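Bench log. Compound arrived from synthesis this morning; before running ITC I wanted a structural hypothesis for how pyridoxal-5'-phosphate sits in the protein. Inputs:
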Amino acid sequence: MTLTLQDCRALDAQDPLHALRDQFTLPEGVIYLDGNSLGALPKTAAARVAQAVTSEWGQGLIRSWNSAGWFDLPQRLGNKIAPLIGAQPGEVVATDSTSINLYKVLSAALNIAAVDSPERQLLVSERSNFPTDLYIAEGLCQARGLRLLLVEPEDIAAALTHEVAVLMLTHVNYRTGAMHDMKAVTAAAHAAGILTVWDLAHSAGAVPVDLTGAGADFSVGCGYKYLNGGPGAPAFVWAHPQHADRFWQPLSGWWGHAAPFAFTPDYQPAPGIARFLCGTQPILSLTALDCGLDTVLAAEPLGGMAALRTKSLALTDLFITLVEERCAGHGLALATPRTHARRGSQVCLSRSKGAHAIVQALIARGVIGDFRAGDGAAGGHPDILRFGFTPLYIGFEDTWNAVEHLKQVLETGEWTQARFSQKGAVT
Ligand SMILES: Cc1ncc(COP(=O)(O)O)c(C=O)c1O
């Protein structure tokens, strides 16, 4: 039976995580369902970044590298990220972008494979992986004379042959929200002698992740989505300790040197994950990311990622149920798995036409989701309306209201207005 708006208000009132929303500045009247693309602004961030500018930079000047702890920010933030992804302290650094970190770890994994099993010439990934992952892999394959093999998710197991050096996957798919079983896939890859690289862009801070428990080899992830680090926030990188010291990463800059301020002409990589740093770090961006990480860690006393996950599933279940009951007959289809174990923290709906305009009409009403274009091929990927549920700041009443807006946009045909057909550079 459908929950009413009153039921949803009661669920918010009982929700032990509800107060975590007070950590964020969200515009009045907005229901923000795009934290999977850009997380909301932590209330602490503006003052903290202002302090880093006026006091640490303005007054401390160059001294702040030591006195304000700028120099080891990548490691300190890495240590805050570690428990969210099943890594140990000292195994993660916050640095660079996801794309750049992927280049580093993919190179490291290919280096290991080239030594341990040089006959393996394939890099396998999923055809619907996020494009930057595929482009980085394509570039590396070109440079090394390897072949990139792209498969559908259901064909991954069959593709894990003795010709494959590395399997590179995104844990939660950006278009569909479908989640891989990291432990089972990693075990299958290892059984065939294949190293695994996991992109956690839609997982870190969104779903519980256990890289160590899964026996994964390398991982990267994003700082500006569920970690609330701000636009273009630094990403993170993890390498299993057994691999971290085996090779130089390809961007062997001075920040990854064992003693950067010794200024030696030759490169001596730092031990462990610190070698995955490259050059001088964006301190103001790292400072904002620090505030974002604290918003996620604030859930720790309330049950941490497990509690956030329980709420996220309740929200996405509610959204799916309400859409199917209240928006039936309007051509929407569910593109996200119903099975909890296969679902990330977003719900994607497909529609053969009008998806972009419907999202625009919702945004005009203050319900912010986004649109991801399909490939236009018959039987290929359809256009997607994408709704991210960040349980830190989204509640049950928000979910009910979002579906009510969707219902009205569809029933009135509001989305067919010409003003909703214009596409911006960013969708
Ligand atoms: C799976 C995945 N990887 C990487 C990225 C982005 O990487 P970058 O921050 O380097 O632009 C995204 C962005 O949405 C993503 O969804």
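What the model suggests: The two ends are 35 Å apart (CA to CA). The chain has two domains: 5-42+304-421, 71-297.
ITC booked for Thursday regardless.
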